[in-house]
Design brief:
Elements lengths: L1 E2 L6 H13 L4 E6 L2 E2 L3 H7 L8 H17 L3 E5 L18 E3 L6 H20 L4 E8 L4 H5 L4 H10 L2 E6 L8 E8 L3
Parallel strand pairs: 1-2, 2-4, 6-7
Antiparallel strand pairs: 3-5, 6-8
């Protein structure tokens, strides 16, 4: 499934996901649209007729579709295009055919990190106190998702909610799950 097609809206993409789910696929892949050299889309982009999604918009839309597919027990096996000589960051590779769009070499990781962030924030909000410091106990395979790309999740929690996060690895916690403990609140 592609997100960010010309004239496609967030609602269109959810409806497309619903239509695809009716086909009962076992797996899906989700790709954000990139503007590639020597295509009709490049011509539309150059004329201002097509505006690609920003990276943040693509992550959010991909995440919504991911949530929908997983709620229907459909396995999402890839999010984002795999890097190659021609599909790469045009700012870092002059041979890249990518002209514009939400390209990121770790796009799938960004989406997964954002999903983890949502889960952590949801759990924090369930506490009836202003949390100052938490400890997240997690399987070692999920540490990078909790921390986020370039520590983005940890930094956002600190910046937006003034919450410090300590990570504790525990190989006995199932991958994909976590436990959270309040270490300090603003009341004490």
């Amino acid at each position: 499934m592609m997100i960010g097609l010309p004239e496609s809206t967030r609602i269109d993409e959810i409806n497309t996901a619903k239509d695809l789910a009716k086909l009962k696929p076992k797996i899906v892949r989700i790709y954000p649209v990139l503007v590639v050299k020597n295509t009709e889309l490049e011509k539309e982009y150059e004329k201002g007729e097509y505006v690609p999604l920003t990276l943040n918009q693509a992550v959010e839309r991909c995440k919504e579709v991911f949530y929908y597919f997983t709620s229907k027990k459909i396995n999402v096996i890839r999010m984002g295009l795999q890097s190659s000589d021609v599909i790469s960051d045009p700012m870092k590779n002059s041979k890249s055919d990518v002209v514009a769009g939400p390209y990121h070499e770790a796009f799938g990781q960004l989406v997964e990190d954002s999903i983890w962030y949502d889960s952590i924030l949801e759990k924090i909000k369930k506490y009836n106190v202003k949390v100052r410091e938490i400890e997240i106990e997690i399987n070692p395979v999920n540490v990078s998702n909790v921390v986020g790309h370039k520590k983005e999740n940890i930094d956002k929690l600190k910046e937006l909610y003034d919450v410090d996060v300590k990570i504790k690895e525990n190989k006995y916690i199932r991958p994909g799950k976590f436990e959270m403990k309040i270490l300090q609140t603003y009341d004490n």
